[in-house]
Amino acid sequence: MRSLIWNKLAKVDYYENIDYLLREWSEKEAQEFIDEVQEIENILRKGVVEFQDTDRQDVKRCVICRQVTLFYRVIDSNTIELLRFWNNHKDIKALHL
User: Fold this and answer.
1) How much is the average pLDDT of 78-82?
2) What is the CATH number of the domain that holds 61?
3) Could you please report the per-residue DSSP string of the chain?
4) Which of 37, 64, 72, 82 is deepest in the core (most CB within 10 A)?
5) pLDDT in tens, 11-68
6) Region 66-91: what's the mean pLDDT?
7) Which residues of 58-95 are buried (b: 16+ CB within 10 A; e: fewer)?
8) What is the pTM of this model?
């Protein structure tokens, strides 16, 4: 099973998304987001699926929900680094990985 590393920006994005959902929506929506992220983490750990390539070397993307895309990097066959949980309403040109 592969290990996952969360970089600082991924952690910040993740908690900002949860805070937003709690503030603007409800605990139910926040929990659904948390559950979706955990499901994707399990898929990435098992290594059974590789998600969509991006124009950046070794960086892939996975839609968590309609509003949020996870960007991650394959470090080696045993390690994945979570880079960003990007809000899809933001300009992709502002994405820094």
Assistant:
1) 97
2) 3.30.2310.20
3) --EEEE-HHHHHHHHHHHHHHHHHS-HHHHHHHHHHHHHHHHHHHHT----EE-SSTTEEEEEEETTEEEEEEEEETTEEEEEEEEETTS-GGG---
4) 72
5) 999 999 999 999 999 999 999 999 999 999 999 999 888 899 999 989 999 999 999 9
6) 94
7) ebbbbebeeebbbbbbbeeeeebbbbbbbeeeeeeeeb
8) 0.93
User: Which pLDDT does position 34 carry in this prediction?
Assistant: 98
What pLDDT shows up at residue 49? 84
Query: What is the C-alpha separation between 74 and 87, in angstroms, rounded?
Result: 21
The answer to whether position 83 is within a domain reads yes
Quick check: is 97 in a domain?
no
Question: Is 78 contained in some domain?
Answer: yes
Residue 82 forms part of a structural domain: yes
* Domain boundaries, position 30: 3-89
Q: Which phi and psi angles does 23 have, rounded to 5°? A: -75, -45
Q: Which residue has the tokens 């970089």?
A: 7
